[in-house]
Structure formats: C-alpha cells, structure tokens
Design a protein that fits this description.
Blueprint: H1 3-19, H2 51-73, H3 83-88, H4 95-112, H5 123-133, H6 136-149, E1 154-161, E2 164-171, E3 186-192, H7 199-202, H8 206-213, H9 219-226
Antiparallel strand pairs: 1-2, 1-3
The structure holds manganese (III) ion (MN3).
Amino acid sequence: MNRQQFFSTLLAGALSTRLTGVFAGQPAVAGPYTLPQLSFGYDALEPNIDKLTMEIHHSKHHQAYITNLNKALEGKDAEKLPLEEIIANISKYPVAVRNNGGGHWNHSFFWQILSPAGGKPSDKFLAIINRDFGSLQKLQDEFNAAATTRFGSGWAWLVSQNGKLKVTSTANQDNPLMDIAEVKGQPILAIDVWEHAYYLKYQNKRADYIKAFWNVINWKAVEGKYFPA
Ligand code: MN3
C-alpha cells in the first residue's frame, strides 16, 4: 500500500463512521457536516429516478459538497454557526461556502421531499394550492416551467412567503433562504435540475425527468414544511 492508498483507506474509514448517523431531517446544526442517510434505497425511486443516478448523486455529489463545505469552514468562527444562519447571510461568505453550503442544504432538503410511495397532497394542503394557484395542475405547470427554463444548473422551488405559496428558481446551489436570492421564502418543495440529477436516464430530456418527479413526491414531508408540527 503506497502513501496515497493509505490515506484513502484512512479517509474511507473515517467517512463510513460518519455516514452511520441517523438522518435527522435537517442538516446538522453546525459543522463539521456529515452525509444524511436516505430513508429509502437507491433503487426505490425506479423507474422515475434510476438507481445509479441516486447512488452517484447522494454518495458522490452530495458528499463532495459536504467535504468542500467542511474544508471551507475549517478553523473559521462560522464553523460553529447553524448552516441556516450562514445561508441567511451568505453574501458575507466566500463563494466556496455559498456553493457548498447551498449544495449541502439543498440536497438534504431534496432527499426529504422524495418518496417511493408517491401519492397526492392532502385536502388541507390542496385547499392552499387551490387558493394560491387555482389548481394542482396550475401549480405543476408553473413549477415545471420554472424547472424547464432554469438555464444551466440550478433548482426550481415552491416557497411559502408568510403562508402564500410561490414558485421560483435559483442558479447553481443558491436557494430562497439566501440573502442574495431574488425571490425569498421558506422552501416547501424543490427539484434539482443539474444534469447530474437526471442525465444518465433522461439525457437531454429534462422535461421528462421533471414530469416523472411528480410521481415520487413525499407529500407528507412537503406539507410538514408548510404546516410545521
Ligand atoms: Mn444535485
């Protein structure tokens, strides 16, 4: 075993120890951050989102944001701040914190709002959707348009602005909790439209991935963000 292999083995050991933590639902309160476990298997969202995409997306892409966020905050005062506090003041931080802190927050959120069970919104939440969009179909149309037309890499969001639902999108790993966001709000639902989220199965057909996304939404988790317990 050469020196590099030795350190890789050491690192893998350290990571697997940290990966065993229970998925608490939100990113850890403060750094160093660790990868949250999924509440379902990598193949559980088939055929809507394929196993290999889920595995690479979670274990490689999300892990890389965490590794780089920890690196960017190492030894800094912000290492002890809650991630949401950092995100709310993101304009004061280096771009590495914006990209990787956003990446960690966004992916942790995304895994929560996915579920193999799919289903429909409750009557209680549907009433809010109808009030703010007219119908679930109109919300889907607006959300899908935001997700389809987001140029390059980014996210589409359903947010709550003091209880009123609104659709928006952000570039890269920005999100509506950031002080630099054009449209701010509390995230309720989101879709990752980076190519790494769909390219293996859908290639250039982003719209097909967005359509399939609606089959694997964890409405209970989504509504939990609108009606906090
Ligand atoms: Mn992603």
